[in-house]
Hints:
Layout: E1 3-6, E2 9-12, H1 14-22, H2 27-82, H3 92-103, E3 108-114, E4 118-131, E5 134-149
Antiparallel strand pairs: 1-2, 3-4, 4-5
Helix pairs in contact: 2-3
Amino acid sequence: xxxxxxxxxxxxSPALTARRRRSPxxxxxxxxxxxxxxxxxxxxxxxxxxxxxxxxTVQFGIVFKDWINVTDTARVAARAAVVARFGPQPDPCAAAxxxxxxxxxxxxxxxxxxxxxxxxxxxxxxxxxxxPLIPFSDGGQLTSVVTERLE
Length: 151
């Protein structure tokens, strides 16, 4: 093989260059052809993981939204129970139940405990997470307890 040096680089002879052009499986051309299937295999291996992560993120967002809704509904129900004696419905627990019913959804008033100085309200909402091919959790109850002072 005859090699010549030009401007600091080593160049192959014209005969060697012609042979490379004729042979489709030589040098970089062969390496590029062999890597075509590798990209598809890597994509096929990574795609299920990415899809599960995406679905898990969406499920977490839904549960987080439900948790915020339960917390807010408990606060509103406790406030309605505290100021109930000034309204048309003097029973604090009936006012709390009406506030939970107005919020809608699967929210339930688990308990309402009025005392001489405070009202404690507990609101619940069922939750569940379902990820494909992964047994995660059957679900449970999101619970929020709020205590407000009577005015």
